[in-house]
């Protein structure tokens, strides 16, 4: 196996480990804050995407709008978010982080600020570009995954190869 092949075959392992580490971090922070995993994901989306409508947030979380209403109620009761009138449609509301919600994100972000400390400064632009590229590709792939399937998993056409053919 060439060096290039070894790096390519170890990339999925490294990515899986990164995702598992991030999930473990989310669980620890959510537990410390007394919120559910989905609630912490909602806070992350509101931080990274800005104010969102309830339907938009439901779509991002992959849950129903009624479940999102309950989730927002809980986050609001914890002082992390608030509903504000939609700027263009008075029938809708927008969910935004409160000052406390932004403080919570900043508190959890302290660790993110140092996550790349072991990466040499000269390598950081390449690492950042790689992470952003992988993130975008995974978002694209997420949109291609069938929502429900009872039968056996069939190979799918994925740019760069077939994951089930390995």
Approximate helicity band:
55-70%
Q: What is the terminal separation in angstroms?
A: 16 Å
Which structural category do the helix and sheet elements fall into? mainly alpha
Mean pLDDT value = 87
Strand runs, count: 3
- Strand arrangement, major sheet: 1-3-2
- Low-confidence spans: none
Cα-atom radius of gyration: 19 Å
Provide the succession of SSEs: HHEHHEEHH
Q: So what's the overall shape?
A: globular
Beta-strand residue fraction: 5-15%
Total helical segments: 6
Largest sheet: 3 strands, antiparallel
Describe, in plain words, how this protein is organized in 3D.
This protein is mainly alpha-helical and 166 residues long. The chain contains six helices and three strands. It has helices at 3-33, 37-49, 54-61, 65-77, 99-112, 124-144, and strands at residues 52-53, 81-85, 93-97. Strands 1-3-2 form a three-stranded antiparallel β-sheet. Strand 2 and strand 3 form a beta hairpin. The model has no long low-confidence stretch (mean pLDDT 87).
Which helices and strands occur, and which strands form pairs?
Elements: H1 3-33, H2 37-49, E1 52-53, H3 54-61, H4 65-77, E2 81-85, E3 93-97, H5 99-112, H6 124-144
Antiparallel strand pairs: 1-3, 2-3
Helix pairs in contact: 1-2, 3-4
């Amino acid at each position: 196996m060439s060096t290039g092949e070894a790096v390519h075959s170890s990339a999925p392992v490294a990515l899986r480990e990164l995702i598992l580490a991030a999930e473990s971090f989310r669980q620890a922070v959510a537990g410390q804050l007394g919120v559910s995993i989905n609630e912490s994901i909602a806070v992350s989306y509101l931080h990274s995407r800005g104010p969102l409508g309830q339907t938009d947030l439901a779509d991002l979380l992959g849950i129903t709008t009624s479940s999102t209403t309950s989730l927002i109620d809980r986050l609001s009761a914890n002082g992390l978010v608030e509903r504000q009138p939609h700027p263009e449609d008075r029938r809708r509301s927008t969910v935004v982080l409160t000052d406390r919600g932004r403080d919570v994100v900043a508190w959890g972000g302290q660790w993110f600020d140092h996550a790349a400390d072991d990466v040499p400064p000269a390598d950081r632009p390449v690492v950042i570009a790689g992470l952003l590229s992988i993130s975008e590709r995974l978002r694209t792939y997420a949109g291609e995954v069938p929502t429900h399937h009872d039968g056996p998993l069939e190979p799918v056409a994925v740019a760069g190869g077939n994951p089930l053919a390995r």
